[in-house]
Amino acid sequence: MLTQHPTTPEAWLRSLDGIIAAAEKRPFAERTRAHADWWKAFWDRSWLQVSLNQPAAPAGMIPASTHPVRVGIDQSGGNAFRGELGRVSVCRVAPSDDALRELARADRGKAYDQQEGVLYSDVPQPGASLAESAEWTFPDGMCLEAWVKPEQLPSGGGRLIDRITPGGSDGFLLDTYPGNSLRLIVGDTKLSKEDALPAGEWTHVAAVVDPVNGAVKLLVNGEVVSKETVDTTDEGLAVSRGYALQRFLNACAGRGRYPIKFNGSIFTVPFPGAPGDGDYRRWGPGYWWQNTRLPYLNMCASGDYDLMQPLFRMYAEDLLPLCKYRTKHYLGHGGAYLPECIYFWGDMFSETYGWQPCDQREDKLQASGWHKWEWVSGPELAFMLLDYYEHTQDEAFLRDRVLPFAGEILTFFDQHYQTGDDGKLVMHPAQALETWWDCTNPMPELAGLRAVTDRLLALPATLTTDAQRTAWRALQAKLPELPTCEADDVQMLAAATQFAHKSNIENPELYAVFPFRLCSFDKPNVDLGIQALKHRTDRGNFGWRQDDVFMAYLGLAEEARENVVGRGRRKDANSRFPAFWGPNYDWVPDQDHGGILMKALQAMLLQTDGRTLYLLPAWPAEWDAKFKLHAPYRTTVEGEVKGGKLTRLIVTPESRRADVVICGQ
Predict the structure, then answer these.
(1) 536-545 tens-digit pLDDT
(2) Domain-terminating residue out of 590, 609, 628
(3) In a domain, 338, yes or no
(4) Could you report the per-residue pLDDT of 295-321, keeping only the tens digit for each?
(5) Closest Cα partner for 636 from 661, 653, 623?
(6) 275, 443, 512, 542: which has the fewest Cβ within 10 Å?
(7) 211 shares its domain with 305
């Protein structure tokens, strides 16, 4: 695979021709044998296969709910729709597209009585709860349709039809969020069409859920404006297939010169109805760290160490000198920080940095507030490098790559922030990811610095110097405690010691759980993480959302199961290949979506802390498994789970078996 970045298309084609010519010099049989041998060795490295050990009910697309169906408001009486409503109908069948087009032409004041399965059809009073609707079930499908004439609505929009806990996924809703748009939520499935409902005009809207074909559709004036195919595959097959196929995609794209692109990998697809071709990528050609890391966080456990090299080479080797120079030039001190958004040669995106030249600015940092003080990428990469060393015990890698990179990152934070009267760093100005823009002591950076210094100080003294250990201890002594807050009379992890100006929908408070593993099922502070998870305002199991992994590390087996199964069944409606996920927040195939599936499933089965190997920390009793995974200290763990119990275990080397803790047994 040619992943070279040339100066012109012609240069790229010449390079490609050279690769083809070199390959063709080898006899075809030899090439075929080498290809087959590589893939056999790849699949023999590791595996994780899940099956159900008891019959399961068929996957439902429409969650059962005890809420009544309400029109014009939500279940708490909020999000009132402002405007006029014509006919509103709720059906327990999925009409054809032709029938829906007829509905869009029918009198908006006349009840819909041409279809079996109509539960309600009338012009309702706004705020009404439909009679006996708490008892309604939808085993064969559902159709919601309405005539609406909205005012110019606020950004929060307004409910049209509602049977769901506000903020939950235990039912369905049809509303206008954001503003005068159209949105359907049914369980974990979300569809939307922006600006679909002009103010002061009558518009016909419909939402259809068809379990027979696994289809969910939104229609405006009889035309489909958004659709998704929901996979109802057996859950064991859904997660096993997703795991294996995502690992296949990693191998296809992970052996080039540069890291895997999160927004489409090497398999990008066109944007339907928009200019461009199959090279389209939402969010462009550059690298965004928070997205780029996610396909890689499962690779140590799967033993795919070779696939990690392009990420490490670009960020920790090729770009480190530029990052050091940029830090000195912009900020006047030592160390290095990694910007969130960069091109492969290290420059920040021009639209992020701004168009005014650096030498004409007083503030030489980027102009955009989205990642201006978001610097967790450095501690995260240092943590990943330490994971790699811990697994491989490659001392040359530790000496030449891990310690120099980690040293520059820690130096940056040590010299950039001042200490307060208590001798602790006051990390301000700062931000917690893209979500909280005005922070002091943000959780991601603070947890990262604590986790990295802990692990560096745990290295054998023979592999580090006295000066290094003295510097690490000095920085660690300056680190404030992990931030917490209180809500509903309980303590929980917080996004920062102080935080304001919410601008995105991440969960930075949970970075102490993942990726930094300072709060987990085996630690005394686990309840801080569980409460933060319960109180999070933003949630989901698609794209870059990491709820599945948080749940696994906190030991929440059933919650992790529900989320990872939903993730495994969710692919692009326009693609046949089961692991062409997305587009979600990014593009097709969404590598963050599949990367999180792999990491969550691994963490449900195996977690490590130092030399300790925890098996089945968040494993559902209804799941059987066959597995082989990699662990620190050049260890492999192979076995079988049946009926919730570990029935076979091979640990290599055998001496590491003494470090195994089987959870729940």
Answers:
(1) 989 999 999 9
(2) 609
(3) yes
(4) 999 999 999 999 999 999 999 999 999
(5) 653
(6) 275
(7) no
